[in-house]
Design goal:
Blueprint lengths: L21 H6 L15 E5 L4 H6 L10 H7 L15 H4 L1 E5 L13 H18 L3 E5 L1 H7 L8 E7 L2 E6 L11 H15 L1
Parallel strand pairs: 1-2, 1-3, 3-5
Antiparallel strand pairs: 4-5
Helix pairs in contact: 3-7, 5-6
Amino acid sequence: MIRSVLTRPRMLTSPMSTRPTRSQLLDAANKTVPDLIAPALKVLFCGINPGLYTAAIGHHFGRPGNRFWPALHAGGFTPRRFDPTEENELLPLGYGITNVVARATAAAEELTDEEIIEGGKILRKKVERFTPRMLAVLGLGAFRLAFNKSRAAIGEQEETIGSTRLWLLPSPSGLNAHHQPSHLAEVFRQLREAIG
């Protein structure tokens, strides 16, 4: 579901000031976080799916320890490090956020292959509708499954969706030990340079 930014529901005010309780986290299972999207964005960033913390607070990449916001700033996309509660400030800069699968889970491993494949189909339609210049998917395994590209590697992909170019980034989850903050900053910077 895509809703106007002005009508986005907020469950908590800020991940920095109010952490969700255990009960709120458990209640967030299977909830969704509305897309942050508009037509003709420079980059539409696409996570795998919302985590429980993100769904509980209602802000993308909301869990403390998620490295999306620091990498976004280090890569030159934002003038400073944004807090997840400031996500709406991305739209005027030409950036948005969506997910391959809308359903919140404690871990991406809880998603079925079928959900990810279906999410890839929904994502393609969304991209065709909103026509961002670049779709940047954050998560190697999810991208490979959703786009049926078993050998896809980090960086720009040969495939496009209409005029939208595809770029693959590592998952910024703090659980992804394969990609340290300095490497994330570098691959985000490469994407930034590619879009000009």
